Model the fold of this input.
Amino acid sequence: MSLEITDDMDALIQIFPPEIEQVLRGLERFPELIEVVMDLGRPPTARFGDQEVVLQKTEVTQEQLDYITRRIGSFGDDNRAGIERTLHRISAIRNRHAKVIGLTCRVGRAVFGTIDIIQDLVDSGQSILLLGRPGIGKTTMLREAARILADKHRVVIVDTSNEIGGDGDIPHSAIGKARRMQVATPALQHAVMIEAVENHMPEVIVIDEIGTELEAEAARTIAERGVQLVGTAHGNTLENLMLNPTLSDLIGGIQTVTLSDEEARRRGTQKSVLERKAPPTFGIVVEIQNRHRVAVRKDVAAEVDALLRGRVLVPEIRERQPDGQIETIKAPQAPDPLTVEVQLGNGLPAVHQPVRPRNGRSSLRIYPFGLNQSRLRQAAKRLGVNITLADSLSDADALFTLRTYYRRHPPAIAEAEQCSIPIYVLRNNTTQQMEAYLADMLGVTADENTIDPALDEARNAIARISAGDEDAVQLSPQEARVRRLQHNLVREANLLSRSSGNEPRRQVTIYSSHRGMN
Done:
């Protein structure tokens, strides 16, 4: 989709004194103008994206500033004014006596088509927070989002400085069917946000420049009522927002938690750690890197949790090409700590899913970090699988490591996570543990020649106990998967069993009653 720009440039240029208006119209890059700066006692300048141009050598006079202020709307408590039914913004600098001694006259443009880069996110119904440096285009994208959403939903814009809907009581056509609530003073923005929900039954609320704790609390209240929020905040990245104590509540808030001794040992951390306090108000964060490129973080809760644990998840990058097409670089799938905690029972964020050799290779390449390599080869040989030990991560299909190494999070582990290389965290450095993980990773089962005799031994023991010949029978040591099968046979026979001993000599004992187990 091509971009269509509406800027009402004539309305802005006409507020300047004739001598400055004439110079502005003669500028070669006049259509690209961003703002005009006029400070008392200094030459007036025009600012473009990559340069500043001095408009005249003579200094700005008080009469020239007064000429401009007489032709615009009145200034609010935030020292901002506008031109009726346009998107232009004039901001004042005052002296100690409240007299205007400087003006920043910014061009307001309605750019139609900017939202196509995140159209699917806007239509998803999730609350979206736009981040980016001043002047990058946050408000422009916000205005376009309001217009698009208003075609299908009840949209109310809380417009504190009249930047979204323009100056005056009649809003600019760029917001489409959306309704606009003006705010008497910036200090009341949070109250108007709540008023919008309570009085006008919106399905979507659009807010520009959430900047105070009260506004962050109001945003959370609105989100909890099931209303979609689309807003902006100053800050380039999600990390910036986390470091801002006032606005961190927008992404769940950060709190210090004191762990028990046992939990701290399990995590391998200090007793005092930082954790997310609550679900994020905004489920999606869009970092605007430039006018044609954004970084999308679709799961803010997971992103914040990862950052608090010292890991950085790679965002999805979207970029608008010169022909208008949107190119998307998908974020690699990050390990899921919750899934792994259930499967491994150790709370360590490792991947536990089938892995296949890359690039058409016949054997799986494993990078062993801190493992006994001869034992790993022996485990593969016992399973009858073909693996190769990789010399570097760039050549690996998976990484095997131990719990103690993973908790230290060395550079090799961090690099594997960044490259989305599956990580397997073993509890101990034994052949049986390696064999179990290899079998699970490759989807193979143990040798039937090993399983059948072990199960026959269990059946014979069950028969002897059931006949009353013995009260307890201790079976031969077996690997964990075989022991599970033996335990299943015992349960089916309505008997009791227990595993005892240490790997690799751990074995099952079958009992006739609880008395025998004691």
